[in-house]
Specification:
It is built from 5 helices and 2 strands; from the N terminus they run αααααββ. With 171 residues, the chain is mainly alpha-helical. The chain has a two-stranded antiparallel sheet. A hairpin with a 2-residue loop joins strand 1 and strand 2. Helix 2 runs parallel beside helix 4. The chain starts with a helix and ends with a strand.
Length: 171
């Protein structure tokens, strides 16, 4: 049984390595996103605990398993979206190569979407920090929000799907 699990791990890691090798710099951004997702979950729990201490007996404050589960589903959706974007990138790279077009840009959809999600997680972490009593400089929150808006503007210029408020809309 252990031998089967070890072989399965090797196969999964091999597929993952091949997949990521095709994408260039993408693995670093995905690692950052995964770390940001964990920090967001932890900061959300800490913020909820602090609010519960400040408002004892009020049910709307404190840790909510429903909110946590919904957050985990959302983060799983991020991963699925990145997987789809990566597959589209691989398809685009393969097709442009097949028809003879030289492209130095690899993984553009995946990278764009991953950075969008990273910025969203950063905004959420800053909101959680504020809920914990940290005075987050307004300019810092504004810079992150502006970066996120810039992604939307650049996306509109390229004519691909628009991303608004964390949702993806087709043209």
């Amino acid at each position: 049984m252990e031998l089967k699990i070890s072989k399965l791990r090797i196969v999964i890691l091999g597929i993952w390595a091949l997949f990521m090798g095709k994408m260039g710099e993408i693995p670093q951004s995905i690692s950052i996103l995964l770390l940001m997702m964990v920090i967001d979950q932890v900061s959300g729990i800490l913020a909820a605990k602090r609010e519960a201490l400040e408002h004892p007996g009020e049910k709307k404050y404190g840790i909510s398993s429903k909110r946590m589960v919904l957050g985990i589903f959302k983060k799983a959706g991020y991963i699925l979206t990145i997987v789809v974007a990566t597959m589209v990138d691989i398809l685009m790279d393969t097709m442009t190569e097949y028809i003879g077009i030289k492209s130095t840009i690899k993984g553009s959809f995946c990278l764009l979407i991953t950075v969008w999600f990273i910025l969203g997680e950063a905004i959420s972490i800053l909101e959680n920090a504020s809920r914990m009593g940290v005075k987050v400089p307004r300019f810092f929150r504004k810079i992150i929000s502006e970066l996120q808006k810039d992604i939307v503007i650049k996306d509109q210029i390229t004519g691909y799907n628009k991303i608004k408020g964390g949702k993806i809309y087709a043209h």
